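U., I forgot to send this yesterday:
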Amino acid sequence: GYRSIALPGAEYLTLRVFLDRSSVEVFVNDGDATLSSRIYPQSGTRRLSLYAAHGEAVLTDGSLWTLA
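Result:
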């Protein structure tokens, strides 16, 4: 499935995405908007996709942390 929200027309957005075995949470601009969902991926098929539905977006930076 998917979730969506209307975003402000800001030049830059910050996204913090938390993904674990059964949930995904997204925080936009330090919590101005949040999305949360339970997920049930098949083993070995977890992926994260980002896209701009009405315009363009460029990913300028990213980091990944793995928790033990």
